Fold this protein.
Amino acid sequence: MVEAFRGLLAVIIGYALGALPMGYFVVRLFKKQDITKIGSGRTGGTNALRAGGIGVGLSTAVLDLAKGYLAVSVSRLLTGSNHWVEVLAGMASVFGHNWSLWLFLMTKKFSAGAGTGPNIGAATAFWWPVLPIMAPTVAFFVLVVGYGSVASLVAAVGLPVIFLIRFLAAGAPWQYVIYGLMTTVFVAWALRPNIERLLNGTERRVGIFARKKTE
């Protein structure tokens, strides 16, 4: 009973951490603007980049990553090495980021982000090399390709592939593969409007070529 309570508490804390709309706070602090009224209206790193520039975008991305990492770390403090609780806490942080109760209480808007930051953060807590693999990948797709939605989808699909390879080659926990598959669903569902815009060629661009392409 105690273990079940600790596991449930870890998941709740994971959601509460993930639901913190860091982009909303960072843009408010440095730009005195409401990020939900800019660009896509999301609170993740890509829209923070659009709202406040590279420093604001990078700060938001790091803080979002930390949410997922902390969610898994707290779960380990509460329950030890229970892989299912780790996975559920990490998933809860991604879900909270995408559908934030805190943002709803402040702005009446429930949809917050696409989950990329906490998704990579939680995965990094599972296996640290995820960060040096995914950080430059996401940066390339955001800054060079210019589509944050593509970066999010590439990262989301890449994580279960990484964990499947780890499971097959090194006997890493198979529960991490489940984590990657479920968070891919969360990310893809949140990005439905972006996917539609990508298909019809109207998706917003960011990054180093965005201005050149839109002029």
